[in-house]
Amino acid sequence: MKRMWNKITCLLLAAALAAAMCAGCSSGKKVAGSGEKLSIVATVFPQYDFARQIAGDRADVILLLKPGMEAHSYEPSPKDIIRISRCDLFLNVGGESESWLDSVLESADNQTMKIVSALDCVEPLEEETVEGMQSKEHHHAHDHDHDHGEETEGEEHDEDHNEDHDGDGEEEYDEHVWTSPMNAIAIVNRINGALCEIDPKNAEYYCGNTARYVAELIALDNAFRDTVVGAKRHLLVFGDRFPLLYFVREYGLDYYAAFPGCAAETEPSAATVAFLIDAVKREKVPVIFYIELSNHKVADAIAECTGTRTAQFNTCHNITADDFKAGESYVTLMRANVEILREALQ
């Protein structure tokens, strides 16, 4: 559901855009190839990392989502809005979590800015609820029961309530398209194309960097495929949200999880936890996964009940401040996934 901005946020947005336009009038637009670096702004870590691999020292690449911050709760500050309005290339996800995007772009007075949205680079997948998963409908109905505890026709009310949420005809897509290295390649190629168009004098440089980086991504993809082909099982269990739909579809894996990828909830029902515990015992699953920046309480609880161990699976939507300082990248994080995946599928 789209986040509603309050009045103060709207006023800050207007003030920031006014400041940006005034600053733009005084400084002028940068010209590619003039010796001044291009400005690239990315909302989340994957596109930020892709851009710095391609652009190298020819651009200043800015990450809006600070390391360690939850992507789904991010809203741009006035400073962020100024950066967006003045950049040469703006990289975003383009999904529901960036509901502020249209307002910012419509108000920005930058006719030459190129925009690459990750969801536009691939065939998007609708978010799904698999067996045992805590569905959004459950939480809507649960909240409704608390708000209307004295209703005598609760079930009928819940059905109507769910229709209000799901009947708007809009699909909700899984936004984490980069979790498939093949999708990452598509995004990288689109970013390269945009940079070559903005700065044709350095096109050969960008294309060379892109070719080398794509080779790394292909090697990563091959490593995942080799791991899956040689595995005796093909089931993953996440005691957490599951923002890896593109990943499992790419490699033909099955999964159980506590929540969909973009769920805001962190406390599953007893039925969901019981289902995951039974699945782990029945399938003799050796590893329970959680994602980065998670408190992994649900995964820990399942592991304690089943005698298994927990491990982090990197979705790369963001990284910790320590990992950022250490120079971790999309490729290094995904290579770590190859190793833990091998153990989980044994």
Task: Offer a concise description of the structure.
The chain has 346 residues and is α/β, with parallel strands linked by helices. It has helices at 7-27, 45-55, 78-86, 101-107, 136-147, 154-166, 181-198, 203-229, 245-251, 270-283, 297-306, 321-325, 330-344; strands spanning 38-42, 59-63, 89-92, 114-117, 235-242, 254-260, 287-291, 309-313.
CATH C-level category of the largest domain? Alpha Beta
Give the strand tally: 8
Oligomer: single chain
Q: Which segments are poorly predicted (pLDDT under 50) over 5 or more consecutive residues?
A: 1-33, 138-169
- Provide the spatial order of strands within the biggest beta sheet: 2-1-3-4
Describe how the helices and strands are arranged.
Blueprint: H1 7-27, E1 38-42, H2 45-55, E2 59-63, H3 78-86, E3 89-92, H4 101-107, E4 114-117, H5 136-147, H6 154-166, H7 181-198, H8 203-229, E5 235-242, H9 245-251, E6 254-260, H10 270-283, E7 287-291, H11 297-306, E8 309-313, H12 321-325, H13 330-344
Parallel strand pairs: 1-2, 1-3, 3-4, 5-6, 7-8
Can you put this structure into words, describing what you see?
The chain has 346 residues and is of the alpha/beta class. It folds into 3 domains: 7-124 and 173-217, 3-Layer(aba) Sandwich (Rossmann fold); 136-166, no CATH class; 232-344, Nitrogenase molybdenum iron protein domain (Rossmann fold, 3-Layer(aba) Sandwich). The protein has 13 helices and 8 strands. Helix 1 (7-27) runs parallel beside helix 3 (78-86) and helix 8 packs parallel to helix 13.
